Task: inverse folding
């Protein structure tokens, strides 16, 4: 039976993962971590007489805070042997604030989580959710990506993707670790009930005036948040280490997602965006200028490896509300 620590449990995807693991008979103690107060959704779990779930507030991007967590009495008492690291994503998709030396918070957290998982001998498993937008894309929408597909390591890669790529390489580098079993789940755009969308770099950033390359509308692979949680549970219960693509079967154009999330971006020439972006970064403000291959070319994911080794298969399809209001909803695949 696994005893699990879940990071960013106060954010939407983290809450979904916690709920899924809580109802799994193969999971014992759950130590959940967040930057804010415990979600109201956890009230009945925290009030449960079994005391299987506990919640602590920790800033994982700060070395001292992360160290205190991984060497805490709470972690020892819960006999944590597995860490599920859910990357920060938030409810508003706002742009991340940098920490020391301009390092993105997501990258700082990945480094510290890996470091402490390697140091704490009682932790034997690390499962982390990563991004499928780390892959290099070829022109068009025909990109069918496998786990061994090339990553986009171009030094001019869009800033909103760089932290995802850096995190991927941090976790990827530990997949072969002797003591620690590492599982990296690469997921595309995550859709939750009510039409909420997470982990799409094309929709990231603050909600001020936004621009994107003109003439492109890439197809976006999707996965339901409930299926991501199911994939995490499968990885926790597995004895496999490795990198796995996790996705549903649907794809939609980026423009459709933008309308659903009310985060449209005005089209502008790509060359102009690159020049203006450099000027805006130097000036320290202005409109959000989005650029990069992920805003030009679409992709789908080959999930065969996750199906064979983890037993993962999507159970939910993503459809439009029958109310005709353009809102996304989740249905079981049999519906």
Result:
């Amino acid at each position: 039976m696994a005893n699990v620590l879940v990071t960013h449990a106060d954010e939407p995807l983290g809450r979904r993962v916690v709920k899924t693991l809580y109802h799994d008979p193969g999971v014992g103690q759950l130590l959940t971590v967040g930057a804010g107060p415990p979600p109201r959704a956890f009230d009945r779990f925290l009030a449960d007489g079994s005391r299987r779930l506990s919640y602590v507030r920790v800033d994982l991007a700060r070395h001292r805070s992360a160290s205190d967590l991984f060497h805490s009495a709470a972690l020892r008492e819960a006999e944590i042997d597995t860490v599920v690291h859910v990357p920060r994503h938030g409810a508003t998709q706002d742009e991340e604030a940098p920490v020391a030396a301009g390092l993105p918070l997501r990258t700082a957290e990945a480094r510290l989580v890996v470091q402490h998982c390697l140091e704490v001998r009682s932790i034997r498993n690390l499962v982390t959710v990563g991004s499928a937008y780390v892959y290099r894309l070829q022109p068009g929408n025909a990109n069918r990506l496998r786990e061994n597909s090339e990553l986009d390591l171009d030094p001019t890669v869009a800033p909103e993707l760089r932290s995802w790529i850096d995190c991927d390489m941090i976790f990827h580098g530990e997949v072969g670790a002797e003591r620690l079993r590492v599982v990296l789940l690469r997921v595309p755009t995550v859709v939750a009930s009510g039409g909420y969308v997470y982990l799409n770099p094309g929709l990231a950033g603050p909600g001020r005036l936004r621009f994107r390359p003109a003439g492109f509308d890439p197809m976006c692979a999707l996965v339901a948040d409930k299926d991501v949680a199911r994939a995490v549970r499968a990885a926790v219960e597995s004895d496999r280490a490795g990198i796995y693509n996790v996705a549903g079967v649907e794809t939609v154009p980026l423009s459709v997602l933008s309308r659903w999330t009310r985060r449209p971006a005005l089209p502008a020439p790509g060359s102009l965006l690159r020049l203006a972006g450099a000027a805006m970064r130097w000036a320290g403000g202005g409109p959000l200028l989005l650029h990069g291959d992920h805003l030009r070319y679409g992709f789908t994911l080959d999930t065969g490896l996750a199906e064979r080794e983890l037993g993962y298969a999507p159970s939910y399809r993503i459809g439009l509300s029958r109310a005709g209001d353009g809102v996304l909803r989740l249905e079981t695949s049999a519906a």
Residues 105-119 form the longest helix (15 residues). The domain at 2-192+222-249+299-334 is CATH 3.40.50.720 (Rossmann fold). DSSP finds ten helices and 18 strands in the chain. Residues 212 and 290 are 5 Å apart (CA to CA).
